[in-house]
Amino acid sequence: QGGGDKPFDFVPWDDPPVAIGLKPVYPDFARRANVQGTVMLEVEVYKDGSVGNIKVLRSVQAGPGGLDEAAINAVRAIRFQPGKSSGNPVDTTVNQPVEFRIN
Q1: pLDDT at 1
Q2: Using CA atoms, how far apart are residues 19 and 12, in angstroms rounded to an integer?
Q3: CA distance 1 to 4
Q4: How confident is the model at residue 82 (pLDDT cuts 50, 70, 90)?
Q5: SS (H, E, C) 23-80
Q6: How much is the pTM?
Q7: Dihedral through CA 38, CA 80, CA 24, CA 67, nearest 10?
Q8: What CA–CA distance (Å, rounded) separates 99 from 40?
Q9: What order of strands is seen across the sheet that includes strand 92-100?
């Protein structure tokens, strides 16, 4: 039988994955309530730049419609420049901050 819960071999990167065009949508009620902060996500980034599983490492506002969900949705909507090891794209994970600030 196989082992582990991940279908891919994740490789440590020399060059980290880079989010392309990350523009989170600030939920109206969070803005009105003056909720701010940085959600930290652990994102699986595959060598084609697509996104796999996302885990919240640091929550700002959990629950439906909160900042955590907005951060996850923003990351799901984009692609990444994949992480590289020895110059080659690899399946890896990256900690991705998503900042919500009221200007």
Answers
A1: 37
A2: 17
A3: 10
A4: very high
A5: CCCCCHHHHHCCCCEEEEEEEEECCCCCEEEEEEEECCCCCCCCHHHHHHHHHHCCEE
A6: 0.88
A7: -50
A8: 9
A9: 51-58, 37-45, 92-100
